[in-house]
Design a protein that fits this description.
Radius of gyration: 18 Å
Number of domains: 2
Shape: globular
Oligomer: single chain
Number of helices: 8
Structural class: alpha/beta
Helix content: 25-40%
Number of strands: 5
Order of helices and strands: HEHHHEHEHHEEH
C-alpha cells in the first residue's frame, strides 16, 4: 500500500516528517520521540532507502529552523515529542498549547509564508470520552468518537464550526485535491465521496454514506488577497 508520502514524491511535491526528539533518538540519547507515530516509516519505498529517508525525516527543531530560513517543504507533518504532545501520561495540555502557539507565531511572523499556508491541528484519539454525536460506519472498521480539529490560515473561515463529516483521512483527501494527486488505492478511504448534507435534518449525517469531506469547506478561496494562486503551496 502506498502512503501519502509516496504519492507526493511521485508528483515531485516536497514533504518532511518532523518528529520531536528525533535527533536525540538517532543519537541514542534520552528522548521522548514517538517511534510509531510516523505513518511513512513502514513504507520500504521510503525507509528502505537511506537517502530518501534522510530527505524526509527531521526533528521538530529542524522545522523551526526551516521556517526561519524559508526552506519549509510544501507539506510538513509535525509530531511533538511525548514531553509536549498533551498526552496525560507524559505531558500536559498547556504544554502542547504552548508549542502550537510557538508554531503559529513563527509562521505568522513570515507574512509571505503564512499567506500560502494552512496549519491543520488535530488529535489522534478521543481519550475515551463519551460522544453523543453521529459516528458513521465508513467501512469495515467503522469510525471513532470525534476529536478536536482546527484550521489556521488566511483562507480559513475564522470563528465558525464546519458541520461536514470529516475523518483523519480528510487530511489525505485535502492534500490529494490540493496537489492533484490520485487516491492511494482502490480500497482506501480517500476514495470515499464528499458528504452531501441534508440541511433540514442533522447536517453531520451524510445522505450519501459512506462519505468523508476533503476539508475544502473550511476555506474561502475567493478572498481578494489570494491573487492568481490556485491552491495552497504549503500545508
Amino acid at each position: 500500500m502506498p502512503t501519502i508520502g509516496d504519492a507526493l514524491i511521485a508528483k515531485n511535491v516536497s514533504w518532511v516528517y518532523y518528529g520531536g526528539g528525533f535527533n536525540d533518538a538517532a543519537a541514542n540519547k534520552p528522548n521522548a520521540f514517538c517511534p510509531i507515530c510516523n505513518p511513512m516509516q513502514y513504507a520500504a519505498s521510503i525507509y528502505g532507502n537511506a537517502a530518501v529517508r534522510q530527505q524526509h525525516t527531521k526533528d521538530i527543531v529542524d522545522f523551526f529552523a526551516d521556517v526561519s530560513n524559508d526552506t519549509l517543504p510544501s507539506v510538513s507533518f509535525v509530531k511533538p515529542s511525548g514531553f509536549v504532545d498533551g498526552h496525560p501520561q507524559s505531558s500536559k495540555l498547556n504544554l502542547f498549547e504552548a508549542l502550537l502557539d510557538n508554531i503559529v507565531d513563527r509562521v505568522r511572523a513570515k507574512p509571505e509564508l503564512f499567506a500560502e499556508t494552512a496549519i491543520i491541528v488535530t488529535w489522534d484519539e478521543s481519550g475515551g470520552f463519551y460522544d453523543s454525536g453521529f459516528i458513521q460506519p465508513v467501512d469495515f472498521f467503522g469510525d471513532g468518537p470525534r476529536v478536536p480539529f482546527l484550521v489556521i490560515s488566511p483562507f480559513s473561515r475564522g470563528g465558525n464550526v464546519v458541520h461536514t463529516y470529516y475523518d483523519h483521512v480528510s487530511i489525505t483527501k485535502f492534500i490529494e485535491r490540493n496537489w492533484g494527486l490520485k487516491p492511494l488505492s482502490a480500497r482506501s478511504r480517500d476514495n470515499l465521496p464528499n458528504p452531501i448534507a441534508d440541511e433540514d435534518d442533522n447536517r453531520y449525517v451524510p445522505r450519501n454514506m459512506p462519505a468523508i469531506g476533503d476539508l475544502m469547506e473550511m476555506f474561502h478561496f475567493d478572498r481578494d488577497d489570494r491573487g492568481d494562486r490556485d491552491s495552497h503551496d504549503r500545508g
